[in-house]
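Exercise 7b. Backbone tokens:
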């Protein structure tokens, strides 16, 4: 799904954000990306979304080399991606329904499709009763669920979440990642940047740690689950019917990548907010000098003393059962 081949990124001021990155993320995988501020995580995501171009190397997304992609083709690549932001980036003067519908309108979805799809997505994230509310009337956790519904509404092949739990109550962080985990379980690739070690330890997912522009750890070995395995097994059967309903709906609805792009509404986001599809998280040139002795990936996972401090052979690592979903 995503492949980096000898990718480096050097900014105009000489700062090397990434150095000789080689990485493969198969379709349908869930990956946590961790590292200190300025380590290169944001640049890593920006290269995938074509906000930045690599200084050297190749980046392949879904079989397409996007390293030197023409500007006019970038929106079509981004249609395969759903973005979830730390600061939500909702449009305050639009209702919850319209915030989600907006993502469909900009790719040319029909009114009929919007009326059918948006309520379904709001129901999926548990906000169908908030459709007529405005973002300022919602809690932080609810706003992020709106952002997740918006990211999912065009049925993307991958979700890119940049610190999605950074501005919500820690108690709600698991709820957001539970939703991402559920979407991933149904086949969508998920890349999530996070600083929350409790989330990393709780969910049995692959972790990539970036430090000083280089990948210093990449493992599928994760911390033990907090929830008992038998609870997970009991829930699986109950979810199988939901899966079949979801697949039937999506097969009928299809993706919107062949639709014509239409102009967005003239009313621009207010109060300093960025436009929905404009990814403008600026790179902090000084952040690379502020490495604050953040614990290594192995140290985080070894807090309970159950992990040996030895290099992990990724090729020999055994598969770990999916994480138990913890509902809050």
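Sequence design result:
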């Amino acid at each position: 799904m995503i492949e980096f081949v000898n990718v480096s990124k050097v900014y105009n001021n000489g700062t090397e954000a990434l150095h000789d990155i080689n990485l493969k993320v198969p379709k349908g995988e869930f990956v946590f990306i961790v590292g200190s501020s300025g380590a290169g995580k944001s640049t890593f995501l920006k290269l995938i979304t074509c906000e930045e171009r690599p200084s050297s190397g190749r980046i392949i997304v879904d079989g397409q080399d996007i390293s030197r992609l023409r500007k006019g083709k970038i929106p079509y690549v981004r249609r395969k991606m759903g973005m979830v932001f730390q600061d939500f980036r909702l449009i305050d003067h639009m209702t919850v329904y319209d915030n989600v519908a907006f993502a469909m309108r900009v790719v040319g979805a029909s009114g009929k499709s919007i009326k059918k799809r948006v309520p379904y997505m709001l129901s999926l994230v548990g906000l169908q009763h908030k459709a007529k509310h405005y973002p300022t009337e919602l809690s932080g956790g609810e706003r992020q669920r709106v952002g997740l519904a918006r990211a999912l509404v065009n049925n993307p092949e991958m979700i890119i979440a940049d610190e999605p739990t950074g501005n919500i109550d820690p108690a709600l962080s698991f709820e957001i990642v539970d939703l991402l985990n559920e979407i991933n379980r149904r086949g969508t690739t998920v890349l999530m940047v996070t600083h929350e070690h409790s989330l990393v330890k709780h969910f049995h997912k692959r972790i990539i740690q970036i430090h000083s522009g280089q990948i210093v750890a990449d493992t599928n070995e994760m911390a033990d689950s907090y929830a008992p395995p038998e609870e997970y097994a009991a829930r699986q059967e109950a979810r199988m019917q939901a899966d079949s309903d979801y697949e039937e709906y999506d097969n009928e609805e299809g993706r919107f990548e062949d639709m014509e792009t239409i102009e967005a509404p003239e009313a621009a986001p207010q109060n300093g907010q960025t436009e929905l599809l404009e990814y403008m998280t600026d790179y902090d040139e000084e952040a690379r000098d502020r490495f604050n002795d953040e614990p290594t990936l192995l140290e985080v996972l070894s807090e309970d003393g159950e992990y040996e401090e030895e290099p992990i052979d990724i090729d020999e690592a055994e598969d770990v059962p999916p994480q138990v979903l913890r509902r809050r």
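Instructor comment: The longest strand covers residues 16-25. Residues 2-316 form a domain with the Rossmann fold fold (CATH 3.40.50.300).
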